[in-house]
């Protein structure tokens, strides 16, 4: 039975690595997959899902306003799909998450979404909020803080290495911009005076 999955975590937990491995497993068994990633995230090149450990794959892209049900239905005209993989799922719009649910419910194809749960201000991304609300299954991809505890938060750093508390929700970056921390160390980094 097809399901809508949401695999979430902070930065640098290995979400893209897991996505690429899962897609590889399908393809190795002769089953086609369809990969989608956010159009404006060009860190690995446009239309490419890549991991920090050096593996990658070509992908189609999604942008705000795209009808993902129609995009996937059009792709199905080329042949059957065993699974659809969405990287950077936090950038999906609410309507797009519902379109992916329709793919699962009406077309019977599993959809595996991978993305961040919260931004650097500890606020849910719109795509993540919608996935948390309607996904059939959710899985946390874990990573660790520098103290060894589970990292559940992320800070955005400025050029001088100071944690930012304000700014646009979306700013593409990697290790030079973001650091994953446990809640206690996130509070310390962001200047929460009650943290100790």
TrEMBL record:
Binding site residues for substrate: 170-173, 178
GO MF annotation list: ATP binding; thymidine kinase activity; zinc ion binding
Active site: 88 (proton acceptor)
UniProt xrefs under InterPro entries: P-loop_NTPase, Thymidine_kinase, Thymidine_kinase_CS
Cellular compartments per GO CC: cytosol
Regions crossing the membrane: none
Name of the featured protein: Thymidine kinase
Keywords assigned: ATP-binding, Cytoplasm, DNA synthesis, Kinase, Metal-binding, Nucleotide-binding, Transferase, Zinc
PROSITE patterns: TK_CELLULAR_TYPE
Lineage, top ranks: Bacteria, Pseudomonadati, Pseudomonadota, Alphaproteobacteria, Rhodobacterales
Species annotation: Thalassovita taeanensis
Gene name tied to this protein: tdk
Known partners and oligomeric status: Homotetramer.
Ligand binding (ATP): 9-16, 87-90
Family as reported in the entry's similarity comment: Belongs to the thymidine kinase family.
Catalytic activity of the protein: thymidine + ATP = dTMP + ADP + H(+)
């Amino acid at each position: 039975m097809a399901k809508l999955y949401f695999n979430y975590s902070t930065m640098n937990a290995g979400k893209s690595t897991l996505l690429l491995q899962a897609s590889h497993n399908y393809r190795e068994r002769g089953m086609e997959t369809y990969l989608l990633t956010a159009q404006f995230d060009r860190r690995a090149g446009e239309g490419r899902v890549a991991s920090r450990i050096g593996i990658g794959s070509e992908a189609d892209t999604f942008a705000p306003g795209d009808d993902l049900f129609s995009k996937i239905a059009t792709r199905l005209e080329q042949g059957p799909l065993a699974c659809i993989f969405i990287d950077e799922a936090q950038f999906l719009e609410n309507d797009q998450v519902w379109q992916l649910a329709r793919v699962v419910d009406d077309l019977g194809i599993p959809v595996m979404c991978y993305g961040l749960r919260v931004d650097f201000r500890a606020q849910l991304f719109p795509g993540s909020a919608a996935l948390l609300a309607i996904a059939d299954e959710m899985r946390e991809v874990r990573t660790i803080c520098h103290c060894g505890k589970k990292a559940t938060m992320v800070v955005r750093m400025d050029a001088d290495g100071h944690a930012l508390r304000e700014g646009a929700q979306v700013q593409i970056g990697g290790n030079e911009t973001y650091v994953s921390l446990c809640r206690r160390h996130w509070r310390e980094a962001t200047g929460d005076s009650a943290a100790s």
